[in-house]
Amino acid sequence: MDILSNLNPQQKQAVTAGDGRVLVLAGPGSGKTRVLTRRVAYLIEHMQVPSYGILAMTFTNKAAREMKARVETMLGPNARGLWVGTFHSVCARILRQQVAHLPFSSNFVIYDADDQKRLMKQVLKDLAMDEKTNRPASMLNYISHAKNNLVLPDEFTPTNYRERIVKPVYERYQNMLQVNNALDFDDLLLWTVRLLADNAEVRERYAHGFQHILVDEFQDTNMVQYEILKLLSYANGNLFAVGDEDQSIYRWRGADYRNVMRFEEDFPNCQKILLEQNYRSTQLVLDAAQGVINQNSNRTPKHLFTQNARGAQVILHEADDDQGEAQYVVDSIRRQMRNGAKGSDFAIMYRTNAQSRRFEEAFLHAGMSYTIVGAQRFYGRREVKDIIAYLYLIHNPADELNLSRVINVPPRKIGGKSQENLAIAARDAGLRQQAVLLDLAQHKDKSPYWARMGRGAPALTNFGRLLNKWQTKAATEELPALFDTILEDIGYHMHLDDGTEEGESRWENVQELRKQAYEYRERGLSEFLENLALVSDQDTMQDNGDSPTMLTLHASKGLEFSQVFITGLDEGLLPHSRSFDDPEEMAEERRLLYVGMTRARKQLYLVRAEQRFTYGQPSYSQPSRFLAYIDEDLIQQDGTKKSGLRFSSSFTSASSWEKPASKSKRWTSNTTSWRRKSKSANEDAPRKAPPMRSEPIRKKKETDGAWNLKRRTLNKPAAKQTSKRAPTAAPRAVDTQYKAGMKVSHAKFGPGEVRESGFDETGEEVVKVYFSEQDREIKILTSFAKLDIIE
DNA sequence: TTGGTCCATCTTTTT
DNA sequence: GATGGACCAA
Known about the structure:
With 791 residues, this protein is α/β, with parallel strands linked by helices. Helix content is 44%, strand content 15%. It has 30 helices and 23 strands. The strands form five sheets. Strands 11, 12, 13, 14, 15, 16, 17 and 18 form an eight-stranded mixed sheet that branches. A six-stranded parallel sheet has the order 3-2-6-7-1-8, sandwiched between helices. Strands 22-21-20-19-23 form a five-stranded antiparallel sheet. It binds a DNA duplex (15 and 10 nucleotides) through helix 4, helix 17 and helix 25.
């Protein structure tokens, strides 16, 4: 196969670019993966770069796997030796290789978000700090931020009150990580930079080893990651970055799309190549998506075009509530599947995982299968994490976080008091808790610690015996055997088997984990654990044959589907209310929608619901402001009221309340609630609105309560027939200076009449004025253009 | 020490 | 409507 076949001129230019820095800005669907893989092949075949001299960095293991597989199909055995991996896995690998230069030992473990939180809670407890006022998540945020800026605790100089509180927490947190011989995700990157920056010899070795470095999704790199790339490429200067500012959606994780601009500043001589031809979508989908993204500034303007057909209009549907929303989506899919469409043609996307529930219910009700990405993380499940914790204990005796997690799971009479005794005894003796346990196991009541353990001594001794047994076994036996021994010794099956369906499914998850352990029987415990820590759910997304896929907008990046439903296009959800008071966050929400829209090959649906349950409470919302940026001509409304028989009788008052049909109407309806997360609006809504359905009070959860509940909701759309739409008037946060009906005058456009006034996301007042001389409505930013009030 | 019950709090997104 | 924490009875 010819490496350069089927490439357009820009793609070819990128693939064949010579040495040096190359920045490829690749719009959605522009063949970026193709460019990357061909580039690797080109380097090996035409530029005589040995495969082991190439490093390709991605963000997900899935992307890494795919890239590797594609290169292998092109080059066969020549591809062997290629380094392809996620930033985190590559860093973990480097750190293990160079562990001698680092302040931890080679069997370090990696703490995931869940572990971090548990550790943070411990830290706060140790420091006698209140969890309510010092939220663990918030503390971790500060710390993550610091680490992303390469700041370790002793370099952390507080500049405000909050940071003064954070500092000791950060110190202790980091210290605890070290004591546990553990690294968090940020540490993997941070220590790699430290290693390379402080250690000339090591740096030389890698920087000369990697003759060419390629990065995917460059817009999602954070500062540390960019630093790593610079350090690794400094010797040869061959850095090939592919990205798209418009698809940067990981700001909250430290990603900074401005790295794209920095790249150009740092390397003024770099080659910059734009890929603008789209091979995925219809022109109409592209136009709609660009309407949204063009509202953003700070980006390289791109003009996406395609040779594909113009395509069908975007279908907009406004449902009465979240159940109706789900019903609409599932009905649409079912109808088309009856006409021969494949289930896998469809994707349902949403902003938050919580929204998936309604769709699951609707699918179940319709008797259709579905695939769901993420949501309940497999590795995040309690039973799975418990077993992994046991393995961690064996692998890394220093890990006391995981020890405390499972020392009493299943319950073995080692309660809080006993654990405290153990911790104190260990601290006084300057030993690890595990060492104390092992000593107890060995010497029983002759152990110097026996007496100090009080009533818990026998239980602790037993546990020490187990630990000892497992550790011996780990040295001699293969992983699956060890796995089974642990399960048996702790009676985990019994523990999970509580007669419920849930218990059964938990046990199945443990079995699934065991299957994976079996696959690692050759590579062993250490690699198994590292893999577990660095694998995400997208990576494990199994192809569920031919069923529709449900996933978050974030998870949709890099994928494509024939038909895409983007749901929950409501103020507060998309854009999410958390982004209301930060323009940068708002811009990211826009990108998120843009990413979702550009996943569609043929048909795009935008769906919303006026009312939905949040926190189990009904709440109302306005249409997403983003809808207003999509040209009306590109949209076709698919109304509920006419076609939706389900609700024809249920909303008697509906007809009297006209749906906003035009853009301008939609735009107005937002104005009241834009200003901020209108706390008042959210608090008021449920109070003003009579309860939507009278929920029978469930006094206690029966064993099958969950199932009952599910069935009840599924069979009862009727419950809402009694409901009435409550007026959705949200209180006005701040009054606009201009009011509808005012006569104004503009220097250039002449006299006009104000039609609407509201605030945009930055809090600027925006008015829509009808100018008679122009015979059109014009949107005006009042702080910008001067408008004189005439009357 | 355990297991139950009640309560508050919450949720963006994930390597 | 889920989860984690606090509290209490056995």
